[in-house]
Hints:
The protein is mostly beta strands and 448 residues long. The chain has three domains: 88-255, Sandwich (Jelly Rolls), CATH 2.60.120.1440; 261-346, Immunoglobulin-like; 351-446, Immunoglobulins (Immunoglobulin-like, Sandwich). Helix content is 7%, strand content 52%. The chain is built from three helices and 35 strands. Strand 5 and strand 6 form a beta hairpin. Mean pLDDT is 90; it is low at 1-26. Keywords: Signal. Residues 36-82 form the LysM domain.
Amino acid sequence: xxxxxxxxxxxxxxxxxxxxxxxxxxxxxxxxxxxxxxxxxxxxxxxxxxxxxxxxxxxxxxxxxxxxxxxxxxxxxxxxxxxxxxxxxxxxxxxxxxxxxxxxxxxxxxxxxxxxxxxxxxxxxxxxxxxxxxxxxxxxxxxxxxxxxxxxxxxxxxxxxxxxxxxxxxxxxxxxxxxxxxxxxxxxxxxxxxxxxxxxxxxxxxxxxxxxxxxxxxxxxxxxxxxxxxxxxxxxxxxxxxxxxxxxxxxxxxxxxxxxxxxxxxxxxxxxxxxxxxxxxxxxxxxxxxxxxxxxxxxxxxxxxxxxxxxxxxxxxxxxxxxxxxxxxxxxxxxxxxxxxxxxxxxxxxxxxxxxxxxxxxxxxxxxxxxxxxxxxxxxxxxxxxxxxxxxxxxxxxxxxxxxxxxxxxxxxxxxxxxxxxxxxxxxxxxxxxxxxxxxxxxxxxxx
Length: 448
């Protein structure tokens, strides 16, 4: 990372001398070159055939380096070769994993991808709601395309000279999360949106594009990212924990929000829906949570944003098991901040379907209270019946408090007239935890 930072700073020092964050104009950049050390038997003609776009390009290398004889050069001599002359052959990526509605469009055909499938330049990955696809690049870098996104692999190339890879993505809608391994020159990694260009040689960062607002957001988790407006009028150099909000009219460098926190991280998710309460975070506009079966979020399967200003995330029904939640917060400028990951247990435990019936037998009135256990595993129940006071609350201690009920029913007889409140507690052991939950109180009126 330090080497990359030095390289980026070296390329942009003239632009950022007046302001380390922003530059308003851009002079003509110097020609980028790569050094090549002459080996025994090398000639400029042979090098051009092997590594340059055209064999005749050797003449420019000869002029630039003042080589007298292109067929005879001293071994160990260094040649500065313009990157623009270097031949870059097609490179490939592969589908490392996906979940949900994912579409891969390449070669004029759109279809659901296959695990391990080869992906070529100009392919487009499209994800639906709660869908994710993970792309493995040839140098060990990875790109995750989260839900509701469309990303084009606009450049997948490898330089013939030294095998350095050069990759570019275009976020046409939604987001892309990239973890890029350090790259050799002249290779690089660029993520474009309609209003910005983010360039790195090795780092961990995210890029998103909001079509409605016509703005892009670049968030740096590790390393350094150079963000350009794309029209040459402004740029920003973002370090770790910084983000860049870019639009057609401005580019702003801002700090990222810290990771939010759960109110009760040890709580078992036993309710009918998954519900996480968060501690409100200053500056947060929206909270984002991603669910996965692994802490690295490789096998992510759901993502949700909170309502604006609401520190709460909910998800629909989820099978019992152990899961992970990655939390982050978005600022008012649309920048997603630092994230933190929690493990949690999903173990459904509920009591529903409460009902009561009565029947007369042998000149007595019997009341049959029924309910249904919700969740997996053997459950035990506790039945309580109380008189209801004038304020609608239980009046004193329960008249009946019976633990250890194994059936989903309980029978009482000869209750005197009055208004009663009854409820049931369900208990079960799951994942090494004792889970207990009370049903909603129910009212029973008995007339004279």
